Amino acid sequence: MATSAHKSAPETIGHKAGEEAKKVGEKVGEQAKNLGERVGEQAKNLGEKVGEGVKSAATTAVQKTEDATAFLGQKADQATEAVGSGMKSLGGTIREHTPKEGALATAGTAVADTLESGGRYLEEHKLGEIGEDVTNMIRRNPIPAVLIAAGLGFVLARAMRS
Q: If pLDDT is split at 50, 70 and 90, which confidence band does 127 have?
């Protein structure tokens, strides 16, 4: 009879096979873990590159918008200066063609002075400064500003209806 201290051949082979399977399983698990870490690292790198690309695109879009805004601002300032120059020129033309004496001369001179003064103001100030001046004037005189706006609205409505 065999003693319990000695194992049979099939039991020993099964035990060794189990140990080998365990070792293979551990190696496969370790390789899967390494593969998972590498995939995670590559995903992280890809995410960083995508983030950098999005950030770069956003920066470019902001820069293009700023450039366009600056260009439009320059064009608006140039247009304001051109209108001012035209007003001054018109004032000079009125001054040249009005009579030298009488009520018509006084009215013509007043219109010419106003056009020339307004023209100089437009030439010397940028559009942003003009906006600030209008805002301050409205704050100082809110009731007349509302009345003027209502009057302009009425006149525009009548003009649009015609």
A: confident
Angle at 78 between CA 75 and CA 83, to 5 degrees: 125
In terms of residue numbers, what domain contains 38? 17-124
Residue 2, helix vs strand vs coil: coil
Burial tier of 130 (Cβ tally within 10 Å: 0-12, 13-18, 19+):
middle
Three-state SS string over 98-149 comes to: CCCCCHHHHHHHHHHHHHHHHHHHHHHCCHHHHHHHHHHHHHHCHHHHHHHH
Instruction: Look at the alpha carbons of 84, 87, 89, 92 in this order and tell me if their dihedral is positive or negative.
Output: negative
Same domain, 108 and 142: no
* Distances from the Cα of 71 to the Cα of 46, 81, 133, angstroms: 37, 15, 23
What is this structure's pTM? 0.52
